[in-house]
Structures are given as structure tokens and as C-alpha cells.
């Protein structure tokens, strides 16, 4: 439990360093620029320079702000996001999961919603109309997009019959306690439990899950206030949204939570859809690729492989979020609401129906 | 260790509830209510009802409290802005009757709960509570068998509320 806590806190802190640097470099690459080049080789030390600047900056509280709420809000946002990491299994080991609870993913969705209260608190306490507008937009967006997000998670839960993220992970690989059939259909009679690899991932167990992942991905983009859903902090119209008035380390905390949220939802997507900490390579005949790249369950090698695959998948998700950010323009408020209520929600309800049918084919 | 945590959560719940009562700033009261809800959720978890605890957070914090804060913010009047600060202040009214009614209810509930003897009732009417690590499976099976009628009625009620809300929100031509 404490090991996982230490790992998670260092992960969230390291993530902001990796995230900001790669975001700037990826943005530069996509716009045919160089990005940070001055400090250190290829600008590696730029982020540390920024960090020292942030630490030195004065923590300004506006004179007419509600002082107590203003100071508390970034902490609340960070606590809400960080609490979500408590149930993530970071690898095939009981020490790498903070809390072994059966209601893991349900807890995660619930605790992350406290984030909304923190954003409202920050926006109101700043006593600034741009901040308040940003907070209002942000909350309207997050509350709406929680519905397709929750429904798409329910689809996975229907297929896996469990809310425990570690159990969902175990089902998607060669260590599965149950038998896995190709595309999840028992009638086909092709047992892929020992083949493992990509064939036991949820996206293959239920082939339509690739399209559901798109719904999930869009909803998580909106949840973490990332472009193209960044109207809460639209720089061109709202200065900086709900965190306009923050400076110094408190602004840093808001930023830390934003990158933490990106990583959290990427982990969740990888665990629910892309096979969690299981290897993508299958066993083909005597070429035991899955066995070679998973190690033995419970050994150091096995844990290391699991952690490697999960982190690789999670950071692929983060990369995807950055790629989308520099590709699509920002959505208008009405387009945003149209997308969630009239497109994503009906699609995810159809997927719940499909998943229920598919589950019946699996047993 | 567990006792200390339990007491800490009790203090958090009661303390933040008192804060809700005493503070004159409506928004501070709403944010103090957040702590109360979290404390109650934690108490549910400590009583072994983890599913109920999480549902408490999801429904009350994620839904109702956000609605409450939105309501406060949207009904803010310009008259409250003294000196440029946006504080929504209220006064304490009917203190005597409020304390009397609340105290009376507390006394009534406290008396009945101490007299009820829940453990005996439980032993007579229900089987042994199994030491299962989560209540989720039991809750699900019970909802779909013994309590399916209330469950469906709640579903219909929510549907009616949804239809009514969309009717009210639609533009009257």
C-alpha cells in the first residue's frame, strides 16, 4: 500500500516533467518548429528552469478574492485527481496497487468528480469574471461528458463482470483464470487462453470495443479539459479560464493536476481496453512470444515486463492526447453539448446493448 | 488504529456540519457540506458498506452539491457585493425554534435507535452477514430479486423527472 503510494506520488511529479517537455517537443514537431533548444542539450533542462522559476515566483492572492477558498482550491483539485491513482494496478503485483478494492473503477469515477468542486471553488474565489466563466464552462462540460464516460466504462464492466481493475487486467492475458475464446465467442471454439497477446485484450475479446474506445477517449479528453475541449481555459477569449488569477506554485499545482488527470485517464483506457499490463505479442506455435515478453507471474521479471507494457500503453495514450491537441481546432459550446448529448450518449447506450448480447455469447 | 480513524472521520463530519450551520457565507456553507458528505461516505465505508459510500460521493458530491453551488452562483444578487467582494451573506433567523426542533428530532431518533436493538432484529430475520470483502454482489442480487419493484419504480420516477425537466426547459412556442 505504502509502496504504491510512493510510486504514484513520484509518478505524478515525474509525469509533469515528462509531459511538459514532450508536449512542447511534439507541438514543435507538428508545427515544423524546433521547440525549446537553449537550456541543455535539445532543451532537456528547459522544464527544470521553468520549475525553478515557478518555485521562486510570489504566490499572489488578489485583494478582493475570497482568501480561504482561493488558497484551498488547487489543493482540492490535486487531491481529487491523486485519489484516483489509489485503485490503479501499476503491474501484476499486489504491491503495485494502492487499494485492492472490488469497486475500483466505480470509486475512480466517483472520486475524480470532486475535481469539479475544486474548479468551481477556484473560479468563484478568484472574483474575476473570466475565471467564473471558465469554471462554469468547465463544470458544464465535465458533468455532461461524465455520462458517455461512465456508460463506456459500464460496457467493459459488463464484458469483464468485475469492477476490480486488477481482475480486469488478469482476464486479458495468459495468466487469465478463465478461458478466453477468439473474439469472445465460445461457439467459434478457438481457445486463445494460452495464445495470449493481443488476442485476449478487451478490444479483441469484444471487437466493437475499438469504436467504444473512441467514445471513451473523446469523453476523457473533455474530462481533463484538453484541446479540442479546452473552452474552459480558452486563452484567446478567457485569458486562462478558472486559473487566471493563480501564480507561482499554486498555478503549478493546477498544472500538475491537469497532467495527472491526462495520465490517469490514459492508464484507465489502457487497463480497460488495451490489455492492461499484458504483452501485445501472442504465442504462435513454438515461438512463445507471449511467454518471453511476460515472464513468470509473481517474479521480478514478470513484474518488470508488466510495468513496462502498462507504462508504454499509458504514454501512448498521452501522446494521442497531445497529437489531437495540435490537430483539431477548439469546439464551440453548442457543438460541445451537441456532441455529448446527441452523439456520444446514444452511441454508448447502443454499445451497452451490444456488450450485453456479446457477454451472453461468451459463456 | 481503526478506532482513531473512525473518530477522526466523526469529528470531520460533525465539525463540518457545524460549520455549515454557523457560517454566514452561503458558499462557504456549500463547500463545508462537501466535507460533511465525504465524512459520511467514509463512515459508510468503515461500517462495511463500501458500495453505498462510493455512491454517496458520486450522487451527493458529484451531482447534488454541484447543482447546489450552481444554484447559489446563478441566483447571486448585485446587492451582496459590498466593497467589490462577491460574498453572499445570510443572517441566522428563528434560532430558538430551529434549535428546539432539531434538538427534539435528535432526542427522538436517539431514543428510538437505542431502544431498537438492531442486532437482535438482524439475528431473527436475516442470515449471518458473511464476511465478504465487498457488498457489491449482494447488493446487485438483492436489487434484482427481493427489491426489484422499488428499483423499477425509482427508474420510472427518474424517467418522469427527466421528461418533466426537458418539457420545462423547452422553448414554449
Helical run tally of chain B: 7
Overall, the morphology of chain B is globular
Output the helix-strand order of chain A: HHHHHHHHHHHEEHHH
> Looking at this structure, what is the CATH superfamily of the largest domain in chain B?
NADH-ubiquinone/plastoquinone oxidoreductase chain 6, subunit NuoJ
CATH class value of the largest domain in chain B = Mainly Alpha
Strand order of the largest sheet of chain A: 1-2
What are the segments of chain A in which pLDDT stays under 50 over at least 5 consecutive residues?
A: none
End-to-end distance of chain A, in Å?
Answer: 35 Å
Q: How would you describe the oligomerization state of the chains in this entry?
A: heterodimer
Q: How many discrete domains of chain A? A: 1
Element pattern of chain B in H and E: HHHHHHH
Please give the share of residues in helix of chain A: 55-70%
Report, as a whole number of angstroms, the end-to-end distance of chain B.
63 Å
- Radius of gyration computed on alpha carbons of chain B: 21 Å
Task: Give the overall silhouette of chain A.
Answer: globular
Largest sheet report of chain A: 2 strands, antiparallel
Tell me about the largest β-sheet of chain B. none
CATH topology of the largest domain in chain B: Four Helix Bundle (Hemerythrin (Met), subunit A)
Please give the share of residues in helix of chain B: over 70%
Amino acid at each position: 500500500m505504502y509502496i504504491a503510494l510512493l510510486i504514484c506520488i513520484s509518478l505524478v511529479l515525474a509525469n509533469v516533467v515528462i509531459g511538459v517537455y514532450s508536449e512542447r517537443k511534439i507541438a514543435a514537431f507538428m508545427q515544423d518548429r524546433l521547440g525549446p533548444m537553449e537550456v541543455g542539450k535539445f532543451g532537456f533542462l528547459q522544464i527544470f528552469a521553468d520549475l525553478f522559476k515557478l518555485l521562486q515566483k510570489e504566490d499572489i492572492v488578489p485583494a478582493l478574492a475570497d482568501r480561504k477558498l482561493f488558497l484551498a482550491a488547487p489543493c482540492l483539485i490535486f487531491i481529487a485527481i491523486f485519489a484516483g491513482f489509489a485503485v490503479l494496478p501499476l503491474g501484476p503485483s499486489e504491491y503495485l496497487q494502492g487499494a485492492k478494492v472490488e469497486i475500483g473503477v466505480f470509486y475512480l469515477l466517483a472520486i475524480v468528480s470532486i475535481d469539479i468542486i475544486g474548479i468551481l471553488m477556484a473560479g468563484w474565489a478568484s472574483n474575476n469574471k473570466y475565471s467564473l466563466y471558465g469554471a462554469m464552462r468547465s463544470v458544464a462540460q465535465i458533468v455532461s461528458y461524465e455520462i458517455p464516460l461512465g456508460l463506456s466504462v459500464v460496457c467493459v464492466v459488463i464484458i469483464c463482470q468485475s469492477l476490480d481493475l486488477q481482475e480486469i487486467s488478469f482476464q486479458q492475458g495468459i495468466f487469465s483464470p478463465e478461458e478466453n475464446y477468439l473474439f469472445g465467442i465460445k461457439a467459434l471454439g478457438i481457445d486463445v487462453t494460452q495464445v495470449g497477446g493481443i488476442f485476449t485484450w478487451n478490444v479483441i475479446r469484444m471487437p466493437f470495443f475499438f469504436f467504444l474506445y473512441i467514445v471513451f477517449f473523446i469523453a476523457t479528453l473533455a474530462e481533463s479539459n484538453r484541446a479540442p475541449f479546452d473552452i474552459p481555459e480558452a486563452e484567446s477569449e478567457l485569458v486562462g479560464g478558472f486559473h487566471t488569477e493563480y501564480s507561482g506554485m499554486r498555478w503549478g499545482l493546477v498544472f500538475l493536476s491537469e497532467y495527472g488527470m491526462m495520465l490517469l485517464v490514459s492508464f484507465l483506457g489502457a487497463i480497460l481496453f488495451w490489455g492492461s499490463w499484458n504483452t501485445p505479442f501472442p504465442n504462435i506455435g513454438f515461438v512463445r512470444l507471449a511467454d518471453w515478453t511476460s515472464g513468470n507471474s509473481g517474479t521480478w521479471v514478470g513484474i518488470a515486463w508488466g510495468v513496462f507494457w502498462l507504462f508504454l500503453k499509458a504514454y501512448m495514450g498521452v501522446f494521442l492526447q497531445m497529437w489531437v491537441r495540435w490537430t483539431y481546432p477548439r469546439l464551440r459550446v453548442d457543438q460541445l453539448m451537441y456532441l455529448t448529448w446527441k452523439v456520444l450518449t446514444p452511441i454508448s447506450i447502443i454499445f451497452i446493448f451490444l456488450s450485453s448480447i456479446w457477454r451472453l455469447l461468451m459463456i | 488504529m481503526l478506532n482513531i480513524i473512525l473518530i477522526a472521520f466523526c469529528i470531520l463530519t460533525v465539525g463540518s456540519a457545524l460549520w455549515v450551520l454557523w457560517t454566514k457565507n452561503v458558499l462557504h456553507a456549500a463547500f463545508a457540506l462537501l466535507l460533511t458528505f465525504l465524512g459520511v461516505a467514509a463512515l459508510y465505508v468503515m461500517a462495511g458498506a463500501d458500495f453505498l459510500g462510493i455512491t454517496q460521493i458520486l450522487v451527493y458530491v458529484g451531482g447534488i452539491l454541484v447543482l447546489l453551488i450552481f444554484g447559489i452562483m446563478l441566483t447571486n444578487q448585485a446587492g451582496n457585493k459590498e466593497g467589490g467582494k462577491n460574498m453572499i451573506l445570510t443572517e441566522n433567523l428563528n434560532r430558538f425554534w430551529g434549535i428546539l426542533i432539531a434538538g427534539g428530532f435528535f432526542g427522538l431518533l436517539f431514543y428510538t435507535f437505542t431502544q431498537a436493538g438492531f442486532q437482535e432484529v438482524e439475528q431473527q430475520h436475516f442470515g449471518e452477514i458473511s464476511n465478504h470483502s465487498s457488498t457489491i454482489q449482494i447488493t446487485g442480487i438483492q436489487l434484482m430479486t427481493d427489491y426489484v419493484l422499488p428499483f423499477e419504480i425509482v427508474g420510472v420516477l427518474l424517467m418522469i423527472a427527466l421528461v418533466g425537466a426537458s418539457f420545462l426547459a423547452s422553448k414554449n412556442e
